[in-house]
Design a protein that fits this description.
A six-stranded mixed β-sheet has the order 1-2-3-4-8-10, sandwiched between helices. Strand 6 and strand 7 form a beta hairpin. It is built from five helices and ten strands. It is α/β, with parallel strands linked by helices.
């Protein structure tokens, strides 16, 4: 398999911002502790600052742990897909159109075009249609998320390849302690160990020509480079205007 775009920038950026937020919370808590050693009313201000920083710190720490797990899951999937032959192309970490967040992986090859969302969650994961829960607690629909990404990829690629009728979507769970209960899912839901076999089965169904796969992967990768250049250009123009 050939990797057109290594990816990781989206979650890396989120992790850096969360580290900065956590540092700010720690600073606020430290300032509160210092004020608590002073005379009233500074003591009360210090207590308020320290107590206010506590829930913020817990929430930020949980988000940081989630992002770090996400980065690990994406790396695991990328390394797993490297087992595929060289007529497969992988474009990671994409942002297209108005999709919320990023698209973890787009695999193009004999399997056709496949959009994948990677999750690293432990425990009992239930999917019923588009409804999802983890350990009995409802969560945002992972199937809607991956299908929105698949729709965005198809919309972009059909301009260059009108014959593209369908983009497959897969949700991959990478945690070894996950237990999946899937009923009438609106996407393909697999464990990490099942992913390669599912891709090979899709290859029997689609049989996309290598030249077509390479061209579509190039288009997708180029769209991300172009978007980054436009973003940087916009920042420079904004700076000049100010």
């Amino acid at each position: 398999m050939r990797v057109f775009r290594a990816g990781g920038q989206y979650l890396e950026g989120r992790e850096q911002r969360l580290w900065l937020a956590l540092a700010s919370v720690v600073g606020l808590s430290g300032a509160g502790i210092i004020l608590m050693t002073q005379s009233p009313p500074l003591q009360w201000a210090g207590i308020a600052a320290a107590l206010g920083a506590l829930p913020l710190g817990i929430k930020t720490s949980h988000r940081l742990a989630s992002v770090r797990k996400g980065r690990l899951g994406e790396r695991l999937v990328t390394e797993l897909l490297r087992r595929l032959p060289d007529d497969y192309w992988l474009v990671n970490d994409m942002v297209l159109g108005r999709t919320r967040g990023n698209i973890d992986h787009v695999l193009i090859g004999p399997c056709g075009v496949v959009v994948m969302e990677t999750k690293r969650l432990a425990g009992r994961i239930r999917c019923w249609g588009d409804e999802w829960s983890v350990n009995g607690r409802s969560r945002g629909s992972v199937s809607k998320q991956v299908n929105a990404g698949a729709s965005a990829v198809r919309y972009f690629l059909v301009e260059h390849y009108p014959g593209l009728r369908w983009v497959e979507s897969i949700v991959v769970f990478t945690h070894p302690l996950c237990r999946l209960e899937v009923n009438h899912a609106k996407t393909v839901v697999v464990r990490y160990s099942e992913l390669v076999q599912v891709i090979l089965e899709l290859a029997k169904k689609h049989r996309m020509a290598p030249a077509t796969a390479a061209r579509l992967a190039e288009r997708l990768a180029a769209s991300q480079t172009k978007g980054k250049r436009q973003s940087h250009s916009g920042v420079r123009r904004s700076g000049l205007a100010s």
